[in-house]
Amino acid sequence: MSDPTEANEPAEPTGASTGERHVRVVLVDDHRMFRTGVQAEIGRTDETGVQVVGEAADVDQAVTVITATRPEVVLLDVHLPGGGGVEVLRRCAALMADAEEPVRFLALSVSDAAEDVIGVIRGGARGYVTKTITGTDLVNSIFRVQEGDAVFSPRLAGFVLDAFASTDAPPVDEDLDRLTQREREVLRLIARGYAYKEIAKQLFISVKTVESHVSAVLRKLQLSNRHELTRWATARRLV
Q1: C or N terminus of the chain, fewer CB within 10 Å?
Q2: Is the pLDDT of residue 227 over 80?
Q3: pTM value?
Q4: CA of 221: how far to CAs of 91, 119, 203, in Å?
């Protein structure tokens, strides 16, 4: 069996006639069963016009597959090993700055948290839909993003407009933007008083990985210990 994170060779759609819409897509999600389900739901090229040309389970794999296949649309999970969806956006933007055809990103996540939505939209995604979306609506969203539209799940659309239009919208925080999505999650849990073991259990990672994230956060924010980190997070109302 081939590695699902490797790019698939492009294939001609078997049932789509000339002139019918067609889009090449890469799936990025760290849950293999979810990727398999999405592939089964939308990847019937002759019926949906969607051709899945590659898959990835973490940031490094995503950047490799996306730059190799140059799809029109990437379905991007927000929480990924290696830095999260924002890191994928940042690295792909740097590597494909001179690309003739744009690669557009549609966030597909279980999360509808404000910080996640604003983070990936600020990072360059064209839309954000949650995993409760139906297969038909997801296909339509993919084609809309391919055409350059901004697409959001109904409950998020008003929130996104309000967040960017309001004078109370959170300003760009250069210090916070240095952190990966996973580092932000660890930061918030540390600031809330969670022990390393509790954080590891909640995020499904090892204690050693938690320690590594904490060290990275302290280094990037130029802080000395978790007490300073807690004060920093509280001052920014991240707790």
Answers
A1: N
A2: yes
A3: 0.63
A4: 21, 18, 22
